[in-house]
């Protein structure tokens, strides 16, 4: 099974995205499954994981309604507020839906140490007991706090979105690389090779700009703990879906086996999110 492990759908008129304003240019439009179908077929992606773009349970329910209508959606990574008294009730309700395969706090929009708040930690205990997946929307500044979290909860199952958004445009690789390696020491942490073109110097980026960061992720996590994600339609700020896919293929280490490619482009995501079984 080939899976694009990170993309989004939204309708601007829903009105709960916050960040999605006319100033976002090409992103301020509706993006729905029909618009992604051709690109998915060109690159033989049978399924996608659609990820939340709004900090509301209502948007998660909207995405789950799309899951019910479209076979191409393998699962939904929704949103829940780990610091809310309503978290246990909302989490239990969403867990009953087959399409709810994970959730993502929008950490990059929160205080850097938000993930270490007492109520957040208390609610995470339930998530860890259930071995339920968490997507981590990080920037490099968050990595020390995630490391502290993992020292408290070393069995947390999580995936780092967009490789924690390294400073590709500036050509900086440290301390991002060393901190990511510390994260990878925890065996239940995975990493998405997604969103990298947004961090490059667009529109003048080249696949060679991505290669040092892609190689670092592959070396650090190994072929069994990485996933491809297009980050469509956000990627359109810098490139087309086709360009994102082709750039990653070129930036990958040449020694990767066919088995490793199968893992990266679907098998790892299926295992992590528990889909396609």
Automatic annotation (TrEMBL):
Task: Mention any Pfam family matching this sequence.
Answer: Amidohydro_2
List the InterPro entries hit by this protein, alphabetically.
Amidohydro-rel, Metal_Hydrolase, Metallo-dep_Lactonases
Which keywords does UniProt give here? Hydrolase
Q: Where is the Amidohydrolase-related domain?
A: 3-274
Q: Which Gene3D superfamilies match?
A: Metal-dependent hydrolases
Query: Is Disulfide bond among this UniProt entry's keywords?
Result: no
- One MF term from GO for this chain? hydrolase activity
Q: Is Hydrolase one of the keywords?
A: yes
Instruction: Write out the similarity annotation.
Output: Belongs to the metallo-dependent hydrolases superfamily.
PANTHER family per record = AMIDOHYDROLASE, AMIDOHYDROLASE-RELATED DOMAIN-CONTAINING PROTEIN
Q: What protein name applies here?
A: Hydrolase
Q: Which organism is it from?
A: Paenibacillus marchantiophytorum
């Amino acid at each position: 099974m080939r899976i694009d492990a990170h993309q989004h759908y939204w309708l601007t008129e829903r009105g709960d995205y916050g960040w999605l304003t006319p100033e976002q240019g090409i992103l301020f439009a509706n993006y729905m499954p029909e618009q992604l179908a051709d690109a998915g077929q060109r690159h033989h992606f049978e399924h996608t994981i659609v990820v939340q773009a709004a900090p509301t349970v209502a948007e998660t329910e909207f995405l789950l309604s799309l899951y019910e209508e479209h076979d191409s959606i393998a699962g939904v990574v929704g949103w829940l507020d780990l610091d809310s008294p309503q978290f246990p009730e909302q989490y239990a309700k969403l867990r009953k839906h087959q399409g709810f395969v994970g959730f993502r706090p929008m950490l990059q929009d929160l205080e850097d140490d938000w993930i270490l708040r007492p109520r957040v930690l208390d609610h995470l205990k339930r998530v860890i007991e259930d071995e339920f997946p968490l997507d981590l929307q990080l920037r490099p500044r968050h990595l020390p706090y995630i490391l502290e979290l993992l020292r408290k909860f070393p069995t947390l199952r999580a995936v780092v979105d967009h490789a924690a958004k390294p400073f590709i445009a500036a050509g900086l690789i440290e301390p991002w690389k060393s901190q990511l390696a510390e994260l990878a020491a925890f065996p239940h942490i995975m990493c998405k090779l997604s969103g990298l073109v947004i961090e490059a110097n667009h529109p003048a980026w080249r696949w060679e700009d991505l290669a040092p960061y892609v190689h670092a992720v592959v070396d650090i996590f190994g072929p069994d703990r990485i996933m491809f994600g297009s980050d469509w339609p956000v990627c359109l700020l810098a490139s087309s879906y086709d360009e994102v896919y082709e750039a990653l293929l070129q930036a990958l280490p040449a020694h990767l086996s066919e088995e490793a490619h199968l893992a990266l482009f679907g098998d790892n995501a299926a295992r992590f999110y528990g889909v396609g079984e």
